[in-house]
Structures are given as structure tokens and as C-alpha cells.
């Protein structure tokens, strides 16, 4: 997968740089000693290549692995008993609301409904006559109540048959994708037997697990950005944040609702979710500019006052395909881009801007 490959390459590259610098870190103390001794060597200064930079305001992001899921998943089940006499869409098809999925044999339901409607008409006439007689004092109230009861029974029976007749046609309840169809023509179903599963994929949701620290920085309605393993990118809105954490992982489930123009988007696809949680000043640098100090801390080296090397531990704000964004430094710096592995903290150096003739390796000048 394109996304995972690029992330894994970047992580591996950073790890290689760190291990390489750790292996040569012993050079730091020995080189620092050369500048502390008295003698002609104190006039030897290291030449390093530098780049003057100003911090940019960027979004601090929570970046987590996630996966896509349907916004809704509905299981359609038989609501009447009977044999399947017709089927509609096949598994994997895009369906519209009201589209036929399967049809159950109506048997004698139309005839029974016609009979029930005729009886209902009769009960209505009987009730009207009974009510007229009661109002003229020619009939007892109990007879009127009996007529009313028979009328209501006829109404209920007619409505029940209408519902059964409608339920013989199993229809899609919304626009979506027919994920599964469990029946074929000739299958006999009882009430409650499964017929099909339909999922809604427009919109779809992206589900991620957020740490206890990060969940306090997000809220419902926030915008999030999704990159799928296929490379497709979407923008969505947080619709749900779990009120309690997972008892094992101590993380919180977060759902991002995303409008989707691709009806064939795979469900369950791996994704990367980015949630901007504020602005921060940061620098975009190559992972190759990272280095270690004498204590083994990861950071960058810059040229400070009097041309002396200053080390800054870094705060990684976010990553991109080619760069990492780091913070925790002044608003402007002169970053050492070549030679940082040979320059000890506090050591005086000769900065050579990148605009000058390229410096391919660190060298020493006699000044």
C-alpha cells in the first residue's frame, strides 16, 4: 500500500540516521577535546553548511491509524412466512431506496384483503345504523358498544393484511450497497429468517482509537482529514467520541463522518486520520538533518551567537512524505545541514550558507 510504504520508508530512514549518529557519537568528545587543549589546534575551526530559516505557523495534528466502516448496516429479515418467488439486486450491487431485494409469495393475501375490506364496509354500515338507533332511544348502549368493537376488529384485520401484503416485497430501506443476499428463488422462509444485509457507504465513517492525552484536545464537529491506503483523500467531521475508554487499551473510539462520491469504496480499508488541534510555530526539515547530542537526545544543531553550536531537542509536530515538521526552537535559526554530526555543542564553527558553493563534507579551516 502506497501510504504505508511511504510512512515505513520515512521511519526507517530516521532510524538509520539515529543509529549511524549514535555509532559515531564517540567522535564528539574526542573532537571537543581538541578544541579545549592549548596549542596551535585551538585555531582550527570546523566548516559546516547552514541554512537560515524562519518558523512557519502550521497545524499541530493528532495522527492515528484508522479504518473505514459503513455509516449504517441493516439486516433485512422475513416478516411473513412464504416461498421466495423473485429476487432483485445481486450481492455487491448498488441499490436505491425502495428497490426490490426479494419477493415472498403472496399466496392468498390479496383475496383475504378483499374479503376483509368488504367486511370492514359492512361493519361501518352496521355501526352507523346502531348509532342512529341508540340516539333515537331504540337500542341499548351495549349494542352500540358491540357494533363499535366489531368495526374496530375489522379495521385492525384489514390493516394487518395490508402490512403482510406490503411485507411480501422486501425493499431497500435506503440508498446503499447490497453487502449480502442470503436467499434464492424457491427458498422457504419463516418469520425472522435473514434475507439480506445492506450497508450505507455515502456517507461512510472512519473509526480510530485516540489516547487519553489526545482525546481531551478534540470535540464533536471538528474537521478531520483522511488518507486511504489507496491514496484517496477525504475531509470529514467528528460525529462521535466515546464517553468511556476501552478497559484494555485505555483508548477512546472516535468516528469521523465523511461524504463519499465513490460508491465502490471498500469497507474496512486502512486509513490515516489527521485531526488538527491548534497552530504552532514549526520548521519543515529533512530527516537527514536530525542528529544526537552527547547525551543521546534527538534534535538539531544550529549556529548560535559567536558562531557556536547550539543543540535543540525537538518536538515532532507532524510528518509528510519528504519532511518532518519540528518545534521547540526560536522563531529563526541557522540550521546546520551538513557537518552536524561532527560539530560538538558549544564548539565554534565557520558557517557556510547553502547559497554558497556546496559543502559535501565537514572540513577544518586554519584561521
- Per CATH, the architecture of the largest domain is Beta Barrel
Task: Report the CATH topology name of the largest domain.
Answer: conserved putative lor/sdh protein from methanococcus maripaludis s2 fold
If strands are numbered along the chain, what order do they take across the biggest sheet?
A: 2-9-12-11-10-13
Helical percentage: 10-25%
Distance between the termini: 53 Å
Mean pLDDT: 86
Description:
Residues 1-5, 25-42 and 356-367 have low confidence and may be disordered. The strands form four sheets. A six-stranded antiparallel β-barrel has the order 2-9-12-11-10-13. Strands 1, 19, 20 and 21 form a four-stranded mixed β-sheet that branches. A four-stranded antiparallel β-sheet has the order 6-5-3-8. Helix content is 25%, strand content 41%. Helix 3 (109-135) packs antiparallel against helix 4. It is α+β, with helices and mostly antiparallel strands and 367 residues long.
SSE layout and pairings?
Blueprint (H helix, E strand, L loop, with lengths): L1 H22 L2 H11 L7 E11 L1 E22 L4 E6 L6 E2 L4 E5 L4 H27 L5 H27 L1 E3 L4 E6 L6 E2 L4 E17 L1 H4 L7 E6 L4 E9 L10 E7 L11 E16 L5 E2 L5 E6 L5 E5 L1 E5 L4 E4 L4 E7 L10 E5 L9 E4 L1
Parallel strand pairs: 1-20
Antiparallel strand pairs: 1-19, 1-21, 2-9, 2-13, 3-5, 3-8, 4-7, 5-6, 7-9, 9-12, 10-11, 10-13, 11-12, 13-18, 14-15, 15-16, 17-18
Amino acid at each position: 500500500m502506497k501510504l504505508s510504504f511511504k510512512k515505513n520508508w520515512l521511519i526507517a530512514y530516521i532510524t538509520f540516521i539515529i543509529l549511524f549518529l549514535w555509532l559515531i557519537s564517540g567522535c564528539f568528545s574526542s573532537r571537543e577535546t581538541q578544541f579545549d587543549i592549548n596549542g596551535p589546534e585551538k585555531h582550527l575551526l570546523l566548516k559546516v553548511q547552514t541554512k537560515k530559516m524562519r518558523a512557519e505557523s502550521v497545524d499541530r495534528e493528532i495522527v492515528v491509524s484508522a479504518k473505514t466502516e459503513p455509516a449504517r448496516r441493516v439486516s433485512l429479515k422475513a416478516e411473513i412466512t412464504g416461498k421466495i418467488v423473485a429476487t432483485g439486486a445481486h450481492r455487491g450491487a448498488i441499490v436505491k431506496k425502495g428497490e426490490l431485494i426479494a419477493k415472498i409469495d403472496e399466496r392468498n393475501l390479496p383475496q383475504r384483503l378483499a374479503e376483509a375490506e368488504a367486511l370492514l364496509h359492512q361493519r361501518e354500515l352496521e355501526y352507523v345504523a346502531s348509532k342512529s338507533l341508540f340516539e333515537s332511544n331504540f337500542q341499548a348502549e351495549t349494542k352500540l358498544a358491540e357494533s363499535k368493537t366489531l368495526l374496530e376488529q375489522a379495521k385492525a384485520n384489514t390493516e394487518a393484511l395490508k402490512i403482510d401484503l406490503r411485507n411480501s416485497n422486501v425493499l431497500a430501506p435506503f440508498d446503499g450497497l447490497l453487502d449480502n443476499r442470503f436467499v434464492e428463488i424457491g427458498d422457504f422462509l419463516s418469520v425472522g429468517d435473514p434475507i439480506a444485509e445492506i450497508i450505507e457507504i455515502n456517507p461512510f465513517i472512519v473509526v480510530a482509537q485516540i489516547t487519553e492525552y489526545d482525546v481531551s484536545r478534540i470535540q464533536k464537529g471538528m474537521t478531520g482529514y483522511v488518507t486511504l491506503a489507496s491514496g484517496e483523500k477525504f475531509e470529514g467531521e467528528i460525529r462521535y467520541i466515546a464517553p468511556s475508554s476501552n478497559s484494555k487499551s485505555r483508548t477512546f473510539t472516535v468516528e469521523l463522518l465523511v461524504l463519499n462520491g465513490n460508491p465502490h469504496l471498500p469497507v474496512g480499508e486502512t486509513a490515516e486520520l489527521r485531526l488538527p488541534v491548534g497552530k504552532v510555530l514549526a520548521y519543515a526539515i529533512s530527516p537527514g538533518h536530525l542528529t544526537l547530542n552527547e547525551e543521546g537526545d534527538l534534535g538539531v544543531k544550529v549556529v548560535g551567537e559567536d558562531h557556536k553550536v547550539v543543540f535543540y531537542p525537538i518536538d515532532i509536530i507532524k510528518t509528510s512524505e519528504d519532511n518532518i515538521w519540528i518545534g521547540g526552537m526560536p522563531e529563526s535559526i541557522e540550521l546546520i545541514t551538513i557537518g552536524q554530526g561532527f560539530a560538538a555543542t558549544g564548539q565554534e564553527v565557520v558557517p557556510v550558507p547553502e547559497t554558497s558553493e556546496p559543502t559535501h563534507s565537514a572540513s577544518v579551516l586554519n584561521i
